[in-house]
Amino acid sequence: MARRGYVQLVNGFYANEKVQELARSGRMDAVGVFCMALTYCGDHLTDGFVPRRAMLYVIGATGEQVNALCDVGMLEAVDEGWLIHDYTAHNRTKEQVLHARKKSAERVAKHRNESDVTALHRNCNAVTSGQTPEHQNTRTPEHQRKRKKNILLLSPKKSG
Q1: pLDDT tens digits, one per residue of 116-160
Q2: Per DSSP, what are the bridge partners of residue 50?
Q3: Phi and psi for 77 in degrees, rounded to 5?
């Protein structure tokens, strides 16, 4: 299985004249194929190349859908498949992705090998919520006990 990542689809994609042309001609199915082709390229780091076999059998595109995408210029036919127009102008290249992965792996390895990092932290790469203590969940049993104790300490004493 390929390593998962992401591709970019500009916010105004729906307003792109090529997409609008497909929509007006009743070919929104081809737009779906285009999006699937984008993610295929991102998943397999192909720099925008979609092999014929992948387009037809993995993505499941029909000849009509592919032709519609070629007619508006979203795909370009090449030997053994298609290229997504301007893929690398909007998405990272294979070289850029691999470089970023290498740098990330080096950074994590360096952090894990630092002597001032405890064993617990060395093995933990969990993402935290980013909450500050005053914004953390106040409904935990521990927090409720502390709250009850503070209320008892602060409440005025009854004189008798």
Answers
A1: 656 555 555 555 545 555 555 666 777 677 777 776 766 666 655
A2: 82
A3: -70, 130
* CA-to-CA separations, 28 to 32, 36, 55, 64, 66, in angstroms, rounded: 7, 13, 17, 12, 12
State the pTM of this model.
Answer: 0.65
Neighbours of 44 (CB within 10 A): 16
> Tell me, what amino acid is at 3?
R
| Beta-bridge mates of residue 75 | 84
The CA distance from 160 to 157, in Å, is 9
Two tokens at 77?
A: 């036919």
Q: What is the length of the chain?
A: 160
Closest by Cα among 87, 85, 65, 67 to 76: 85
